[in-house]
Structure formats: C-alpha cells, structure tokens
Amino acid sequence: MDQLKHRTAGVQEKLEIVGVEDEAGNPISALTILSLLERVAGIIDNVQSSQQRMEERQQELESNIKTVQGDVLKLAKDHGDTSVTVDKLLQKTRKVSANVKEVRSRVEKQNVRVKKVESTQDELLTRNKFRVVIYQVNERR
C-alpha cells in the first residue's frame, strides 16, 4: 500500500504545476487545468457555432429585407400607375357627366317642344282646321 501511495504521490507531484496554486494555497494539478481548458474550449466552440448561426440568420434576414424592399418599390410603382389611371378615368367620367347633363337638357327642351306641337296639333284637330292626309305609294313594276 505504501508503494501505491508513493506512486500516486509521485504521479501527483509530476502533474502539479510549479508555482500555480488555488485560493486555498494548494498546488493545482495539470489535470485540473486541462479540464478547465477543455471546458473553455467547449464554451468557445459553442460561442463560435452560435455566432455562425447568428451570422447565417443575419444574412437570411438581409435577404428577406431586400426582397421586401423590392416588393415595396414594385407596389409603390404600381400604386403610382393606378393613381394615374384613376385620374384619367375620373376626367373621362367628368366629361361623360357633362355630356349627359347637356344631352338631358336638350332632351328636356325637345320634350317641351314636342308637347307644344302635340298641344297645337290637338287644338287644330279640335278646330278641324288641320287634316291629316296619308299618301300611299303603289309601285308596281
């Protein structure tokens, strides 16, 4: 048993780093430092992989933003084109409306004239001063 303790103590002494001590003043072994370095390396690997995923996500977001910007520009152009078309349609509608009002006015005036003619005709027919003659044209060849 003493030999085992002696061997373990010898190995322990070999693994101890000269001049490096923990807070309690005990020497720190190389295995402890190695395990800490492995943990730090693992943490760094995790940070790097997280950073890489974040960079990939950032690139994906930038691509999506560019796509959205392109769509917004296209939408703005289409909106401008639609606005111009709507303005033209409104101008045509105003012209048609003015023409309809003018035609309506003429039709109303003509209606008044027709009523005058009808009343005059009725008056003449009642006085028997006006006779309607119907001509028939017989064309035989």
TrEMBL record:
Pfam families: PTRF_SDPR. InterPro entries: Cavin_fam. GO terms for cellular component: caveola; sarcomere. Keywords: Activator, Coiled coil, Cytoplasm, Developmental protein, Differentiation, Membrane, Myogenesis, Transcription, Transcription regulation. Residues 44-71 form a coiled coil. It is found in: Cytoplasm, Myofibril, Sarcomere; Membrane, Caveola. One of its GO terms (biological process) is regulation of gene expression. Its main location: cytoplasm. The keyword Zinc does not apply. Belongs to the CAVIN family. This is Muscle-restricted coiled-coil protein. It comes from Kryptolebias marmoratus.
